[in-house]
Amino acid sequence: MHSDLVLLRELIDGSPLIGAAPGRGKPEAVIVRVEAEVGALAPSYRWWLREYGEGTLGGVEIGTVRADRWDDLTADGECADLGGLWLSEGRLTFFADQDGGERYAFVPGGAGQEHPVVRLDPLNGEEERVAESFAGFLAVWTARALGLRDGPNPSVARLWRSTPGVSLPNGVLIHGPHTLRERNETFEIGRYAPGWTLVGDDSGGSGFFMRHHGRDRSSVYRLGLGAVGGDVAEYGERVTDDLMGWVAAGCP
């Protein structure tokens, strides 16, 4: 799934974990030169470089590219320092957590395709897939920083691993970690529909709800936000049991 760059910008600008300011983007020529050495960069990471250029996550610098590091691009040896990025054994590392010493890297992909992010174990080098894109990586970290864990249920967690929410032309909005809690508190979902989470809305007065407890945490229901109360499944309309597929199809 492609990352929603509008919501990604909202996430970056509103996340308490991410330190970045727009207007410091890297020139296209610099990015193209790096891609000539390491291959195509993931779209959402490439967008970050053009829009923000540099920044921090939890106070730790996120890898970037620099115009004054050309000599390092062709450095001999296993690793090449690209100005905050490290290329080693086919993995482009862009972030290292200071607390645990864990490194995070892109798995190479084709041009125009998002590249999954893996965590590299500092002891044995084993990989664990943590996100499907750079945008998803930022969303997952923000969700955990806000006390949302990976998401209110597995379906939303899977979506956030790709994109921090989705905004579609038909008005459907699926919330990212930076807005989900505020929207649920605004409509007092915990009070009127305990066990349910408002995961989005249709911009027409109805919300999309999913359970965060129980057996069925994959079904999505539509219900008017003024009619929320009790069991959403009883009063609402079930629209899908596949959130990712439904969103990818444009939420018909």
Strand count:
15
Main sheet makeup: 6 strands, antiparallel
Compute the average pLDDT.
89
Residues in helices, as a percent range: 25-40%
Task: Flag low-confidence runs.
Answer: 70-80
- Could you say which overall geometry the principal axes of the C-alpha atoms support? elongated
CATH hierarchy, class of the largest domain: Alpha Beta
The largest beta-sheet arranges its strands as 4-5-6-7-8-9
What does this structure look like?
The longest helix is centred in the middle third of the chain and has 12 residues, at 134-145. Helix 1 packs parallel to helix 5 (134-145). The protein has helices at residues 5-14, 28-38, 43-51, 70-73, 134-145, 154-160, 180-186, 189-192, 232-235, 243-248; strands spanning 18-19, 56-57, 60-61, 80-81, 86-88, 91-96, 103-106, 117-120, 127-131, 166-167, 173-174, 196-201, 206-211, 220-224, 237-240. It is of the alpha+beta class and 252 residues long. Strand 6 and strand 7 (103-106) form a beta hairpin. It is 29% helix and 22% strand. It has two domains: 5-140, SMI1/KNR4-like (3-Layer(aba) Sandwich); 158-248, SMI1/KNR4-like (3-Layer(aba) Sandwich). The chain is built from ten helices and 15 strands. A six-stranded antiparallel beta sheet has the order 4-5-6-7-8-9. Strands 10-11-12-13-14-15 form a six-stranded antiparallel beta sheet. Strands 1-2-3 form a three-stranded antiparallel beta sheet.
